[in-house]
Amino acid sequence: MRQAAVQRLMELSTAFRIRLAACTPDRAIEMLVESFHGPMLMRLWEAQAIVPATVGRRGTKEHRELVEAIAARDTEAASTLMRTHLKRTVSQVKN
């Protein structure tokens, strides 16, 4: 994948998180997620350089599955997907 395409994918990934947070009834959650936008984008970019095969495509698949679970009002599946996604993302972006 070309660098410009990867960068766009990372930007869309962080934008997805902000839009998802905007769907919550608590504006503070959205503001908190927005405050992480720059640092998260930077860390995702760094992680992508280390494990390019999994960062991006896998996250996009997980985002899609999460949206599908939310649309189906399957809270159990959405919770499980989110926990799995967050654990994996944290393991990739931590120091």
Explain the overall architecture.
With 95 residues, the chain is mainly alpha-helical. The chain is 81% helix and 0% strand. It is built from five helices and no strands. It is globular and about 35 Å long. The protein starts with a helix and ends with a helix. The model has no long low-confidence stretch (mean pLDDT 83).
Note the main attributes of this structure.
95 residues, mainly alpha
The overall strand count is: 0
- Which sequence of SSEs, written as H and E, runs from N to C? HHHHH
- Radius of gyration equals 13 Å
Strand content: under 5%
Overall shape: it is globular
- C-alpha end-to-end distance: 25 Å
Helix content: over 70%
